[in-house]
UniProtKB/TrEMBL annotation:
Coiled-coil boundaries: none
PANTHER family: ACETYLORNITHINE DEACETYLASE, PEPTIDASE M20 DIMERISATION DOMAIN-CONTAINING PROTEIN
Domain Peptidase M20 dimerisation as annotated: residue spans: 168-252
Cofactor(s) it depends on: Zn(2+)
Alphabetized GO MF terms: hydrolase activity; metal ion binding
The species this protein was found in: Okibacterium fritillariae
Protein's recorded name: Succinyl-diaminopimelate desuccinylase
Keyword line: Hydrolase, Metal-binding, Zinc
Alphabetized InterPro entries for the sequence: ArgE/DapE_CS, Bact_exopeptidase_dim_dom, Peptidase_M20, Peptidase_M20_dimer, Peptidase_M20A
């Protein structure tokens, strides 16, 4: 909590390496026999962006129960608005205050302690920790690479769900849409082609997007998040760029990308982010055995599971289940109830002890 691991800052790697060192120390036990193997993944430029710990020894056919967390946090815009230092780990009235306390360092802490305990017992469990989740799951690719060769039988993402089991979330398709025009003096707009006006025409047809519906995930959505075009009032803009956030219920990015490309005003469409939806049935035998309340609603956000599901066998159960309070995520005075963190740890240990490591959940 006291390491400022804001996405895109050096603190991300500092916090990640701190977690790696804790895992190495705790998995070493007496120093004679290690119970876990810790690996570090690196992103572009050689910056650490993922840590994974797996059992040091396990039967070749056993599948792992994976806990997948992230270490990065969103920025603190105005520290003076907080009642306490946002990176001071202040505790009052049984709550831990600070940026990332609910999203999701509390879930990470509960999972880390549980996984170390389970590894010491010889259980087939693993923990993955990434950076860059808040800005598009950037470290998740390294997690997937570090897990290559390790069969995964089920995944718990200890995000902020108030310890309710959440069965999934929509994916995300972020596109950068460009319209092109022809520059001219602002006093003679008829001699040019206004790229902003072309973009406005496309925006006016957004309601025609072929959005789909899922009985559990709900409707897909689209948000025109930014528009950038022109430089001064007296110049007809020859370029305009839209950033589009679409939340999707299937893994077919071409369906929506093709719609944007088919608009006559559009000159280019670039994919900025492409994340798969995640959904597990409440009737899954492993889910039924978790022994915790199951939410009827999906998570509103995406998680690293959107990247991992593309590497898992079809039907692998994935749930979002952690102690953080979704009502205070990303807010001033973000906090978490420490009793909820301990409850999550106990849940994880119980579920880990029930996991046999067979090809299908016990």
């Amino acid at each position: 909590m006291r390491i400022d691991s804001t996405s895109g800052t050096p603190g991300e790697a500092d916090a990640l390496l701190f977690v790696a060192e804790v895992l190495r120390r705790e998995c070493a036990g007496s120093g004679v026999v290690s119970v876990g193997t810790v690996s570090i993944g690196y992103g572009p430029g050689g910056t650490p962006d993922a840590v994974v710990v797996v059992p040091a020894a396990r039967p070749e056919s056993s599948a792992l129960l994976l806990f997948s967390a992230h270490i990065d946090v969103v920025p603190v815009e105005d520290p003076s608005a907080w009642s306490h230092d946002p990176f001071g780990a202040h505790i009052a009235s049984g709550r831990l205050f600070g940026r990332g306390s609910s999203d999701m360092k509390s879930g990470l802490a509960a999972a880390l302690v549980a996984v170390v305990e389970l590894l010491r017992e010889g259980r087939p469990v693993a923990l993955a920790v990434s950076t860059g989740e808040e800005v598009g799951c950037r470290g998740a690719a390294s997690v997937a690479e570090l897990l290559r060769g390790h069969p995964i039988g089920a995944v718990i993402v200890p995000e902020s769900t108030a310890n309710e089991v959440v069965l999934g979330h929509r994916g995300a398709l972020w596109l950068r849409v460009t319209t092109s025009g022809r520059a001219a003096h602002g006093s003679t707009p008829g001699l040019g082609v206004n790229a902003i006006e072309k973009a406005a025409a496309v925006i006016g047809r957004v309601s025609e997007l072929p959005l789909l519906w899922h009985p559990r995930l709900g409707w897909e959505s689209v948000n025109v998040g930014t528009i950038a075009g022109g430089s001064v009032p007296n110049l007809v803009p020859d370029r305009c760029v839209l950033d589009i956030d679409q939340r999707v219920i299937d893994d077919d990015s071409a369906r929506l990308t093709d719609w944007w490309m088919s608009q006559p005003e559009v000159s280019a469409v670039d994919t900025v982010l492409d994340l798969a939806p995640v959904w597990t049935s409440a009737d899954d035998p492993w889910v039924r055995g978790l022994g915790a309340p199951v939410s009827e609603r999906p998570a509103s956000y995406f998680t690293d599971a959107s990247v991992l599901v593309r590497t898992l066998p079809a039907g692998t159960p994935v749930v979002v289940w952690g102690p953080g309070d979704p009502a205070v995520v990303h807010t001033v005075d973000e906090s978490v109830d420490l009793r909820a963190v301990e409850a999550a740890r106990l849940h994880y240990v119980r579920v880990g002890r029930a996991w046999t490591g067979a090809d299908s959940p016990a």
